[in-house]
Each structure stands twice: as structure tokens, then as C-alpha cells.
Amino acid sequence: MKHNWILDGRPVRAWLCLLLALLLAGCAATSTLPRQYSGPAQVQSWKLSLVTASGQTEDSLLVIQPEAQNATRWIQTNPLGAPLARLSLHDGSWSTDGFLPPNPRARQLFEAIIAAQMPRAQWPAAYPDTVVTTSTEGGFATYTFSRQGRLLWSIRLPAMTTANSGTSHQPSTHIVLPDHSQWQLTPISTRT
Asked: How many angstroms separate the CA atoms of 85 and 182, rounded?
């Protein structure tokens, strides 16, 4: 009596291929970029503050650097200058810049920043398959972006200030990501 402990290879291969496809689909990150994006004409610097549950902030620096052929380099560093995320955006897709591991949270934050920098009137054409809803809380409008019922991010833009308002603080954009992380984005003025 001969025992065949080795299974026929065809069903095993089919299951392995299916498992591999599911694994790759789970790892694939989908980008939410506008249809047309032209990066900044000059370097932009931003202070990013992650608001923790206790109300404290963890600060980092974001530099958006224009590159050739309408590409941009996005570099997020901690206060000591160590990189947290380095991504390049070219032709509507992100690529890791350097030896840092992929950072999906940073990519999603950067995509929300792109939307926040865009005039609101351009959102419907730039994000045609995205639903943008508006809610008002405390006198501030919050814009929530979602696609197919899935939250992408929420943005609260800075209030319009007048020259005679007498306030000296920089206006901050507030961003909330699906993981409930809350970010404040404040421009760093560069003097030339």
C-alpha cells in the first residue's frame, strides 16, 4: 500500500496565489491625490504638530521642495533634524525617497495638506470621486473628505483675518486623519 502524503500541486498553487494576491492587495496603499497637482514654485516650510490625547504636541518640520519635471520632495523631520518621512511626488504617485521605510500616515497627511492648500472652489474638479461635506463647530468650518463611505481626512482651514485684527499668531490648519490623529499645520515664514 502506497501512501501519497504529497498533495496534488494544482490546488495548493491556486491557494498560494490567492493568498499572495490578498496579501499584496492589503499592503497596497491607495493615494488620494487631485487630478491635477502642480507643486509649489519655491520651497515651503511648515511646522507640524501632532496633538496627543493629553493635549500636548509633538512637533516636527515639513519641507516641500520643488523638483524638476513638476515633481516635489516632501521631507518631515523631528526637531533634531532626523527624518521621519521622505517622499517624492511625481506624475501622481508617491515614491519613497531614501532609505526610510514607507510611512502611510505621512503620505496620507501630505495628501490632506495638498487639499488644504488648494482653493475650495477647485475641490469638486480635483477630487471628482470624493465627497466633501461641511460642518460648522465653534464658528469654524470643517471639511470632511470621504470616498465610498470611507473617511479620508477632515480639514479645518484657518479663519480669514483682517490686517486690523490685532492678532499676532500664525493661522493654523487643523487636519484629522482616519486613525483619529490630529495635526496642526502652521506655515514658517521665510524671509529673503
From this structure: 17
For residues 125 and 75, give the distance between their C-alpha atoms in angstroms, rounded to a whole number: 28
CATH number of 37-160+170-187: 2.50.20
The string of DSSP letters for 39-61 reads: --SS-EEEEEEEEPTTS-EEEEE
- Domain boundary assignment for the chain: 37-160+170-187
For 122-150, the pLDDT digits (tens) are 999 999 999 999 999 877 899 999 999 99
Tally Cβ neighbours within 10 Å of residue 64.
21
Q: Nearest-CA neighbor of 94 among 86, 41, 61, 113? A: 86
Q: Please say whether the beta carbons of 61 and 46 come within 8 A.
A: yes
φ and ψ of 102, to 5 deg: -55, 145
Beta bridge mates, 60: 48
pTM above 0.70, yes or no: yes
